[in-house]
Amino acid sequence: MADPNCFLNLALFCGLCLLRVFAQEAVDTHPVQDVFVAEGNDVQFPALGPLDGPEVNVVLCDVHHGATNTMLLNYYRGSPVELTSRFVNRSGLSLADGVFRLHEVRLSDQAIYSFRINLGARKFYRLHVLTPVSAPNIQRNASVFLPDVQLVCAASGSNLTRRWMKEALPLPPDCHLSSDNTTLLIRNATATHNGNFSCSVENRVSSRQTHFNLIIGGEFRPLAVKGDSKKEPAGR
């Protein structure tokens, strides 16, 4: 006699395959939770709950890249978890707690991931893969003889934000920042602007800080430019 669970799993499989056709519409109309990870690190998605009980027959996970939907895993009660070849050696689903883990995350893994248990509602997660902040450094404008001082906080990484401080306090009102906070400008700088400036650079997965000790000798005075003196021609 055929196992009734086989027919149930087959029916669920057919039904869920049809539901995958409408997955993109679900992405557009359902709430999506953000998950952040640094490139090269491992990420753990929120737990789905125990999946090894008799009430769980099917678990599906899809990856959504724009209008393209790709199967990530299938699980049918009593069978091993099936992973698509792209993830087979660097991901896994724990049936004990329903946690899906992805190892050595790549930039190409950035996408929306959806999970469905049986015929329940999908849960959507947008995976953000960010490049960590590089070691920042502050560069001063080339000429120390100009009246204006410009400090540039250089760093690389994904979705960076910068925050400047002077002597661990907010910047004085005569310090002006560019729209992205990369450049700090002090007009008509004098020795009163001397001090330790710090720039903190961060994103959702990392943060770094650097310092610059600004030293200005005194009030700026334009340098006098001397012309070449002309000698009177020797007497004839």
Automatic annotation (TrEMBL):
Pfam families: Ig_2. Gene3D superfamilies: Immunoglobulins. Keywords: Disulfide bond, Glycoprotein, Immunoglobulin domain, Signal. CDD domains: Ig. Residues 136-215 form the Ig-like domain. Residues 1-23 form the signal peptide. Transmembrane segments: none annotated. InterPro entries: Ig-like_dom, Ig-like_dom_sf, Ig-like_fold, IgSF_CEA-related. This is Uncharacterized LOC103189479. It comes from Callorhinchus milii (Ghost shark). The lineage of its organism: Eukaryota, Metazoa, Chordata, Craniata, Vertebrata.
